[in-house]
Amino acid sequence: MRCYVYRCARRADTYLYLARRDDFACVPAPLRGTLGEFTFTFDFELTPERKLAREDAAVVHGNLVSRGFHLQFPPDPILTHASE
Fold this sequence. Notes:
This protein is of the alpha+beta class. The chain has helices spanning about 30-35, 55-65, 75-80, and strands at about 1-10, 15-20, 40-45, 70. It has one domain (about 1-80): NE1680-like fold, CATH 3.10.510. The protein contains three helices and four strands; from the N terminus they run E-E-H-E-H-E-H. The protein is globular.
């Protein structure tokens, strides 16, 4: 499955993954309003086995299939610090 990734303008380190390029209709309007403008960042071939830096590829894949989108939030600094 091809995956398209967009940076969210109003939320630092927040990314929107789409199953179809520029198809924002699958993202609920209130969520789109909260996130602001989207800037295309890159695309890649997503498989459930693929290693991603911050997300579980199988979860991303499942969300893209069922919803058409996946939202990646920045890591929680409290949880990140606690694991160090």
